[in-house]
Amino acid sequence: MTRDHQDSRRESPQNSSPAERLLFGGLGAGLIALSLRQRGGMGVVLGTGGALLLAGAAMGQGLGETLTRVRRTEDDHIKVQKAVTIGLDAGELYTFWRDFENLPRFMDHLESVKVQGEGGQRSHWVAKAPAGTSVEWDAEITADEPGRRIAWRSLEGATVPNEGEVEFRPAPGDRGTEIHVSLTYRPPGGTLGATVARLLGEDPDVQIGQDLRRLKRLLEVGHVPTTEGQSSGRKGPMKAEAKMYDNRRTS
Amino acid sequence: MKAVVWQGVNRMGVETVPDPQILQPTDAIVRVTKTAICGSDLHLMDGYVPSMVHGDIVGHEFMGEVVEVGAEVRKVKVGDRVIVPFPIACGKCWYCQKGLTSLCDNSNPNPGLAEKFWGYSPAGLYGYSHITGGYAGGQAQFARTVYADANLYKVPEGLTDEQVLFLTDILPTGYMGAEHCNIHGGDVVAVFGCGPVGLFGIASAFLLGAERVIAIDRFPERLEMARSYGAETINYEEENVFERLREMTGGRGPDSVMDAVGLEAQAHGFLGVADAVKQTTRVLESDRPHALRAAIMACRKGGTVSVPGVYGGLADKIPVGAFMNKGLTMRTGQTHVHRYLDTLTGHIQRGEIDPTRIITHRLSLEEAPHAYEIFKHKHDGCIKCVLDPWADPKDHAPVK
Ligand SMILES: [Zn+2]
Ligand SMILES: [Zn+2]
């Protein structure tokens, strides 16, 4: 797949063929109709499945795309680009980010980053992996424009070669600064292998989005809000089983 | 402590639960002295708001006395008597600083969930499902409140609990609904729904300079209350609302129309039945938008539709042709409670608005399930229930 083609797919949600949409849409409607005649759990399952297919068809998303959602570049790299606006000026944000040891404070998959040597050009990164294991690599800064931009890349020998770039752009009006982040991971063997999934969760896009939101909250408010540990009527074993009631079978 | 807990669709119960604790240094614990049941609590009870979890403490209209503050709380002190606005402001983000507190960027701990439903996440709300943060609510003896300095509003001396309790939600909601009507001198405003928000919408429309307000409902006691606030009324079960509004406004239509009903509107005829079926199955439609349709159709050309009524998800057959061809403006949103508090407290202090008039029932917290029942079914002339978390349950005849 060419890069151009890839990009147009990325921007438009209408990325499944008309035939595909018609097929899944029809299937979805059929399942919903069927579910209305069923009682109990089966009806719910059919209805939910139907509605998901229908919604997918309406949004123009193919099933494969909906299920995996991991994006590849033409040479099978994973590239994630995300932006967030934070109500601080670019200088403050640059200073915070330039100290890479701050990154694990908001990047969930990182366990630690240690800056090494004079000028902090090199750093040692440790990322979390399942079952208490971790992945480590060394990285170096490849571009450093105070108040504007930082770029870095992993050094030879990294299990998952990766590079990153962050740009700080003044936002219009009194909105603060836009942070534009771009991360690229090159999983070994040219496959989307487990390694990256391990690093970034099932959906790197979502993961990085959450990381940036955590950064915003950390810097604007001082901490990330939580309801962990608040009182409720959930007790004992029910606590673990507690499920969200979801009436959202339309979306 | 005792608290009202969501136990599943149509099941609100009173349970003994652990007392709340300070979880973050900007928290404060409030001993709740008065709390109320809101119309939007009924949407939770009926299961039209997704992402409730069995055991969630509900309630987003509450006030009380601060009994504990976190290490970083500066402005609020133990012993302060406060109201707690239902949307949670962080006080620091762009939206909070612009006074758009119900759109706070930072206070919802589950923004990803909200983004799936709505594109972007609004503020966290107390006692109002996990899509808006999953914060435990205030229909309880104590409540954890967050970002205390940015949210807790100190009650001025000389005002009773009942005079200020509705500043947490429905009074500013009615006021913002009226403000969204964009009222100019001589304007006629129609208000669909004479529940608490509609009633405060009527009172606010007059405060903001409306010449006439026409209120629409079907319950005689609510219409009576609307008249006591100065409105003319239409009972939609007895008259054709569209024709009557047209006639009452010299054929022009009301300059602004407020939908103070929201997602569980009653409607007759084919569309009404279709909505009810679709919403009940929750497969095709989550909201029953009859009042919104009627508001769009009834509004005069070039007029304004204001929607303080709560909608949750997807609605069907909105007359967008009428909306476009008549050149209407629509304004809506969860209420930016914080920005109205000084103004409305002033109106209360000067006697220009008496929020206590809408209270029809005063019950103990233990009686909450009963209160939900009579409020939902409008039994016993119920317009607004206030609960006292520390009162003994009174004897009352069970409603069956
Ligand atoms: Zn409310
Ligand atoms: Zn905020």
UniProtKB/TrEMBL annotation, chain A:
Coiled-coil residues: none
Membrane-spanning residues: 44-63
Residue ranges of every copy of the Coenzyme Q-binding protein COQ10 START domain listed in the record: 88-210
Signal sequence bounds: none
NADP listed as a keyword: no
Keywords, alphabetical: Membrane, Transmembrane, Transmembrane helix
Residue spans of biased composition, Basic and acidic residues class: 1-12, 238-251
Superkingdom of the organism of origin: Bacteria
Region called Disordered, residue ranges: 1-20, 222-251
InterPro entries named in the record: COQ10_START, ORF3, START-like_dom_sf
Keyword Membrane: yes
PANTHER family tied to this protein: POLYKETIDE CYCLASE/DEHYDRASE AND LIPID TRANSPORT SUPERFAMILY PROTEIN, POLYKETIDE CYCLASE_DEHYDRASE AND LIPID TRANSPORT SUPERFAMILY PROTEIN
The protein's name in its UniProt record: Putative membrane protein
Record organism: Deinococcus budaensis
TrEMBL record, chain B:
Ranges where the Alcohol dehydrogenase-like C-terminal domain occurs: 196-265
Top-level taxon of the source organism: Bacteria
Keyword list, A-Z: Metal-binding, Oxidoreductase, Zinc
GO molecular function: oxidoreductase activity; zinc ion binding
Cofactor(s) in the UniProt record: Zn(2+)
Pfam family, one: ADH_N
Alcohol dehydrogenase-like N-terminal domain residues: 25-145
Signal sequence, start to end: none
Entry's family note: Belongs to the zinc-containing alcohol dehydrogenase family.
PANTHER family: DEHYDROGENASE, ZINC-CONTAINING, PUTATIVE (AFU_ORTHOLOGUE AFUA_2G02810)-RELATED (PTHR42813:SF2), ZINC-TYPE ALCOHOL DEHYDROGENASE-LIKE (PTHR42813)
Name this protein carries in UniProt: Threonine dehydrogenase-like Zn-dependent dehydrogenase
Species assigned in the record: Deinococcus budaensis
Lineage of producing organism: Bacteria, Thermotogati, Deinococcota, Deinococci, Deinococcales
